[in-house]
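Deviations from the work plan: none for this task. Representative record:
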Amino acid sequence: MIRRRVGEWTLVAAVFGALGALVVVPLTELAAVAAEQFPLDAAVISREVVRNTIGVGLVTAMLATLLGVGAAVLTERVVVAGRRWLRLAVLLPVLIPPFVVAMSWLRAYGPSGLIDDLVGLGFDAVLGPIGVVMVISVNAMPLAYLVCATALNTRARHDLELAARSSGASPLTMVRTITVPLLAPALLGAAALVFVLAINSFGVPAVLGTPASFDVATTQIYGDLALSAQPEAFSRAVLLATGLVMVALVFAAGAEGLLGRRRVEATAGQLLPFRHSTVSRSWIAIVAWGVAVAVVLLPLVVLILVSITRGVGVPPTPANWTLQHFREALDGRLLAALARSGLLAAVAATAAVALGGAVAAIGKRRLRGVAAVLVLLTFAVPGSTLAVAMLLSYAPTLRDTLLLILLAYLAKLWAVGHRTVAGSASNLAPDLVRAARSSGAGRVATMRTIVLPLLRPALVGGWLLVFVIAFHELTMSSLLYGPGTDTLAVAVLNLQQLGDVPVSSALAVLLTVPLLVVALPLLVLGQLPRRLLGTG
Amino acid sequence: MAVLECRGLTVRYGDVVALDSVDVSVAPGETVAVLGPSGSGKSTLLYAIAGFADLDAGEISVAGVEVASTRTAAPPEERAIGFVFQNYALWPHLTAEETVAYPLLRSGMGRAQAHEEAHRLLDSVGIAELARRKPAELSGGQQQRVGLARALARSAKLFLLDEPTAHLDAALRTAVQEEIATRTSAGSAGVVYATHDAVEALAAADRVVVLRQGRVVQVGSPVDIYERPVDRWTATLTGAVSVIEADLETEATRTVARFGSLRVAVHGAAPTGSHGELLIRPEWIVVGDTDAPSGVIKGEVGARWFRGPHTDYEVTTPVGVFTARVTGAPQFEIGERIGLTMTRAWLPPG
């Protein structure tokens, strides 16, 4: 690690000061307010909302983990041709905001969606619990996939499976006695992570659940804080936020325990690529691609088509294409929202990477560990909870300012910046720094000529990742925005709720496609998967 | 009947030809070393035999049963083969005893009996006291022995060892080789082992197959491979060698190389002209001082390496640069002029 004695205490003070302001103060305030509310009336929380939230979490955890493990087996073990592209397709949902996927499903498969218009096949179930669970599963699948693919390559390594085969195990016996026992912790860990992600999800139930009167904790909090002025609504929001964070932290800690286990030691020598029997696997690839197209690509194309078609119900043929919705979308007010989103995301990305680097640069091992754990815990705090806590602590002074939103982003995304920088910094052999020092470079020169150049890919990757997440952020923004501080994502949600299909589609395309174009090459080059995994 | 018969094996990974028409056979009780640098196709050959890689051409029979061709391939579990993996490939969730019992259980043995037999096998490789440990609690050498015991637990006609002793110290290496030897001669099983270590291949094998870029370049006894290498590349693979251009003459039935008045018997191919490129092992060279009777090649010591039992000298002479070997500690200084003669030389074919 990078060690600096001069300024070490300044660094520690800065990191822990920021932790206090971003994490400790808001969460303490939340706990205090919740404690005031609690003895009064816990019954204001409807059983139905609790049941819906837990149900969505459990079903999504199962579905997304199944999808993820299936995709991982396909890309890591079975399909050889086009493996890279299949990986890309599986990871694609990461780069699309969940509520945009929800909107695209609604436009494609929902009642009076494009497919309903064209061939009379619309699914009412897209609105309601089934649609909510399916779309969150699509969004959570990359996470489950990355965990499973990593476990397949590091824990249930292929040579371990080959050893079973050459010990006389049939393929099924091999899976039962070797693969599954080795993968089990990862599968459970992935399911726990997906559960947390699902109960924290706000955008998808807001788009697909609320219109069908299917509410979960996050949408209830939003309804209570943003749309209601009753005092008991406020109590309920605080209590829900508190309950949500407790459940999320328990599951996140469980996942960390399962996934953070010591990996199988890296072994000497390289593994040869394993080639399976010459039986054609093309039908498996076709099925996999069919699923990828149906759940991600087709809805996205439909969303784009809707955004450039003259009106709802008109066939999306070139004759009916227009840029009119984009012109409307980019009028003064929405253009300002776009600019605010870009500014917020850029500042958040820069600050999160800097703060992450600051934690990684703490020389004292124990202090560094404490800071890292606090940062990671905050990442597991649901966005809705964090937003409520921020409101309770800072709304009196920062109400309706961008700074309030920025603080929430930083609290949430600090961990992403930290993981990317710390992961790379811990790979930096101390001898490289020692070699620079013994070559006559001072502390600063070593930093400039050796450490920073080696960390540059991690810094750039971490910055981009934070930028993408912040730019797409909806959960906290929708609770914290005020007059003149709405972000693009909030604008999309508001238009969507007003029922303006073409313009909200155009805005959703603006929110998604430019970043997709920037980030796609990163996915293709295989940089992003590792970064994402770092944030697991 | 051969325990292994491979004919014309060809394996491609995309555009890369990993194996190109390789023929290998192993007789009962025989140990064959596959020798080659990394990337020469050793592991791919073992993978193809074990059933981990499919053939693009050729066929494989184990103990007289065809197990693979381009049309059919028996799955790995149905081949009578025990495999020792280069990186051990021990299952992290199983103890040493469970690991060794695994193939026994797969063969239908009862649990109690399998564990008893596993314990016996662990004892035979000298780590019975570690039976309850998992791989993470074992050293590299101990892990290797568990992997070896697991392979031995299969009632195999053929054992495949991928760099089996690469991670073992010298004493353990001998023990492992003896264990394999007792089992193979008793059960008439054959052994193929891949290695990049020529010393090990020459010492342990009955026959050596030299692989280069997926092709077999030479098959022969260890002495053949060392003393009669097929070319300069193979010669270098198995040890130091001097490459010397010389004028050749045919005298009655034999060929000699002339270095001034020195005449050296040349073994190997019939010369195709009056000139040839000779390969000379360091120990074929006799070093004396320059006052020796006529018929020495005079040269200057350019470098020397003390290697314990002997000392190697690089000697620059008018006919070329020689590597010569003299028993014992260094006795000539760098820059000193010495005289060389040699007992023999090798003229590779082609």
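Confidence is low (pLDDT under 50) at residues 262-280 of chain A.
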